[in-house]
Amino acid sequence: MDMKFKKFIILSIILNIFNLNVLKSQEIDFLTITAVGDLMIGTNYPSKSYLPPNDGKQIFDNVFKYLNNSDITFGNLEGVIMSENIPTTKRCSDPKKCYAFRMPDHYAKYFRDAGFNLLSIANNHINDFGEKGIDNTVKLLKQENIKFAGTHNYPIAEFNINGWKIGFCAFSPNKGTISINNAEEAMTLVKSLKQKVDIVIVSFHGGGEGKNFEQINDQIEYYLGENRGNPYQFSRNMIDAGADIVFGHGPHITRAIDMYKGKIISYSLGNFATYGRFDLSGIRGFSPIIKLKINKKGNLVSGNIISTKQIGDGIPVIDKKNQAIIKLQDLMKNDLINKKIKINDDGSFDLIN
Question: Which domains does the chain carry?
Answer without folding.
Answer: 34-351 (3.60.21.10)
